[in-house]
Structure formats: C-alpha cells, structure tokens
Amino acid sequence: MSLKGKHIILGICGGIAAYKCASLARLLIKAGAEVQVIMTPAAKEFITPLTMSTLTGKPVISEFFTANTGQWNSHVDLGLWADAMLIAPATASTIGKMANGVADNMLVTTYLSAKSQVFIAPSMDLDMMRHPSTVRNIELLKSYGNIIIEPAEGELASHLIGKGRMEEPENILKVLDYYFTPKDLQGQHFLVTAGPTFEKIDPVRFIGNYSSGKMGYALANEAAARGAEVTIVSGPVDIKGVNPGVKIVKIESARQMLEQCEKIFPAVDCAIMCAAVADYAPVVQHETKIKREKDEIPVIHLMKNPDIAATLGKAKRAGQLLVGFALETDNEDVNAVDKLHRKNLDMIVLNSLKDAGAGFGTDTNKVTIFTSTGRQSQFALKSKTEVAADIVDAIVSLAHES
Ligand code: PMT
Fold this sequence. Notes:
eight-stranded mixed beta sheet; single chain; binds ligand PMT; alpha/beta
C-alpha cells in the first residue's frame, strides 16, 4: 500500500531470472506503483519488451534513441522521475558497470543519474556470485548507499546448488513496501495477541476455534514496518512471511497467554488484543487419552478462563493504549461498545460473522472502529493487510488525541 502512486524504474538485465520480472511488475502495479521498465540489450533475449510493456502499460526503454521516431530517451528525466530504481535481476556484468561507472547502456546511464534509492537484486551462478570481483563490486555498490536484496540459495539454472537465485518477487515487493512505509511508530513498543487458544482436554483433544492468526500477524507486521518494536503472543497458527523484526512468543492456552501478556504489557505503549481467546477451559486435563466407553458419554466440566483484555485494562497506566477486538454475530455495535467500556479499552475493532469475507480464516476483513472518545469509523471489505494499516492509522490518531 505504501507503494501507491510511487514511480518505480524496473531495470532488467540479461539473466535467466528475467522471466520473474513479469510477476514482479504485476505485483508492483497491483500495489499501486507506476512502473517504467528499462532493459539491457541482453535482457530482451530472456523476456520480451512486449510482455513488459503490456504488463506495465508503458513502452519499454532499452536504447538511447527510439529507433522509429529518433526520440532521445532522457536518462536524466527518468532518474528524476523515479521514487526508486530496482535492478532485478542484476547480473555480474551490470553490477560491475554500476560499481565502476561504465555508462554504455540506458540502464547504467539512468542508474548514474538517479537521485532516488536504488535496490539491486543480484542473480547469477554461485561461482560468479562469490568471485572476488563480484564481491568487491557489490561492496562498492553498498558503500554508495544502494540496497542489495541478497539472492537466495537453491538450485540455479546451471543445476548447481548454491547462492545466486534472484529473491522471489513477493519478497522484493516487501523490501520496497517496507522502504516506503512511513516510520511513524519509531521508538514505540507494541504487544499483539493473535490466533486461537487451545484448551487441553487430554493429550489428543482440545477446545479451540477457527482463528488463523492472519489478522493479528498482519497487525504485528504493519506496526513493525512502521518502526515499532513488536512482540506477538501467539496461539497455535501457521503463518509465513512474518517481519523478521517481530518477536514471537508461542503459547497454547488462555492462561499461558495471560501470563506472557502480564509480563510484556508494563513496558509497551500499545497492546492490540486480536486473539480469539477461549472463554472456557476443561476443569480437568487428562494425562492419558480418554477412552471410548461402550455405554458412557463423558462429561467435560468447564471453568471460566481469565479475561486477558480486561486484566490488562485494570493494569493500564496513563499513556498506554489498549485495543480490543469484538467478534460478533448479532447486536454488533451494542455488544462491541459494551466490551469497550467493560474491559477499559481505548478502542475496539468490531468484525461481524454476518459480513461475507470478514472474521476467521479469510484473507479479508470488514471492520468498524469505536474509540472511548466516542468516535466511530466504518471501513469497507479489504485485505487483512489493508485493514491492519487502517487500524494502526486509527491508533496513531487516537494517541495524538490523548
Ligand atoms: O485470526 P483470523 O483468522 O485472522 O481471525 C481474526 C479474528 C476474527 C480472530 C479477529 O479479527 C478477532 O475478532 N479477534 C477477537 C475474537 C474474540 O475473541 O472476540 P471476543 O468478542 O470474544 O473478545 C473481545 C476481546 O476480548 C478481544 O480483544 C479478545 O482478544 C479479548 N478476550 C476475550 C476473551 C478472553 N478470555 N480474554 C480476552 O482477552
């Protein structure tokens, strides 16, 4: 989302990973960026300019002059137009030219004129990657302030295994997105709870719920991308691609979640209680598997779990913000506002299972935010990543209000 409206030059060099540039361009466009592709002459052997111009909606630039019109392609204007320049894949040859100012093609000339941040995603065979000249050239490029998106390890085009695979387009997008995300939470510490809790019945059974953790992890990623130090206390979930800055504390039951939250909460500026905490747990947790008896149906006695949000609400000190969620199926607004006050929250995010695409498991959510100051904001159905950005925006506004 932070890429919305940004001007990105995508410089493509002649390497086999050039085929990944079709997905990369699509992801950038989908994120709202305007993309201008510049290809080295060799790149055109690996992916056609027609493919790239169709995807980006702009003619690809490759030569200093456009052949049929004789029009000069100004590398200076392009360099000024760009909010960022991304060279992907960056071959050993182009890396060498960039490091040493060899401006013999449109891509390197534009690089030398660019005023914006430059990202370089190398791609080559493992021996080329570790050759002293490549290592030195990459170090030189870093020393000029360029950001290297390190290649991954794996099977290369040569079928050798090692470091040299261009980073996947999704991960390159994350690097750029992170760069453009405003760092308005620098110096802040956030606690986020996420996922379900599992309340053990016996070694093979539990009481749980359908929470996937997607909403909570999206919030943690958003806060971290905006510069916050984030700790997530997470129930059992399987989420990939978590911001490496996020500290994850894994728990299983509501009581374990409470124990961790009580430890972490005193030091945080904001806590977001997104977990779907089981309200009840079995009184007895059997050490061995409950056997199926012929005529007897076992009865599981339940006890109330602690209310984590309400406990933190009581402990809250001045200056701390406590944000809760309300997952409702009926009488939504009234129930959400009741929870806001009852748990001493500063904000509550309502999502209703009546709304298609909202709540558990989905990649999308539709929320209404209520604040203790009496404000109410309703949002459309969006991806959980976008919803997380809306929620963090609302938290930032509320922090400025108080
Ligand atoms: O994980 P996903 O699949 O992405 O789904 C996201 C979600 C639907 C789980 C999330 O958006 C959400 O609504 N989380 C809160 C679910 C919930 O338990 O709501 P509640 O209305 O029962 O609880 C109200 C608030 O009290 C919540 O902030 C909850 O974390 C907290 N709570 C509830 C019970 C309890 N014992 N302790 C608590 O802290």
